[in-house]
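Submission sheet (multi-component)
Chains listed below:
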Amino acid sequence: MPELPEVEYTRRNLERWMRGRTIVGVVATDPLLVRPKSPREFVSAVTGQSIATIERRGKWLRFVLTEVPPKAGRRSDRAGRETTIYAHLGMTGWFEQAPSAEPLRFQRVGFELERRGKRTRVAYVDSRRWGRLWIAEAPVPAWTALGPDPLNDGIDVPALATKLGRRKRAIKEVLLDQGVLAGVGNIQAIEALWKAGIDPRSPADALSRADVRAIAHGLRWTIARTLADLEKPGGGLGSGPFRIYGKKGAPCPRCDRTLARIELGGRTTTFCPGCQKRRRRRRRKG
DNA sequence: ATTATTGTTGGTAG
DNA sequence: TCTACCAACAATAA
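Outcome: structure written.
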């Protein structure tokens, strides 16, 4: 499920479901999912905290929790304590608001919440268990290494061009590097390169400034429409808003040529051999 | 039974 | 130190 738009959609949901509420109980048993502590330690670190903010960078989420203030006149050693959870959804992780007390299928962590006497529940669900909920004092390395976030920071074309100019690999592989731009995944890269009319195999350092501008535009375009699709009622279901992802053999929506499928850097890649032109390095004179 | 999967990390080699 | 390449992680759905 999760690339940048899906994680942002998740963040907005969590904001509504969790912000300002107190965690009164946590169910966590799988030591693979929580880091670096055991599930027991995870539960005790989080219980009794209230959720102040939920932020996103790329595909990462960060929950900032604060100790619920003790009643007037009482002192607490833990007053002012702040806990931060870094969360990555892996390939199949997501959060759901759970209507009943019954655990959901593939639920890995359950948060029992309370505000003004009202109880609600939010569940982290992940069939494949590649996601992580990571308690840390300082940002985890993967978060620190993230490049600019296209939605939060925008895309600086000259800066992106400089970065791409140092890379020889195929542009699609480079776009998946989270240090280049945070949050671009397989689908968004495929859709953006189609929009830009650039063959995904083109070496990154062969792109012109106009190409980089087109890619930036393509990314903004696909991120915005994926997010819009998720947010419309009943959205996020079906094939989504994607123009070519997963549509090998279908006619290109722009030029009608049959869409092709190749593998790049171990990832499936759909593209149009008709209107996505390959860029080549100019051969150096010798 | 076989194949494909929206992601990241850690190792090795250059 | 930076880049490229590969295997591994784990489990489901078609």
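Remark: Residues 32, 90-92, 106, 127-130, 166-169, 173, 265-266 of chain A lie near DNA strand C (CB under 10 Å from a C1').
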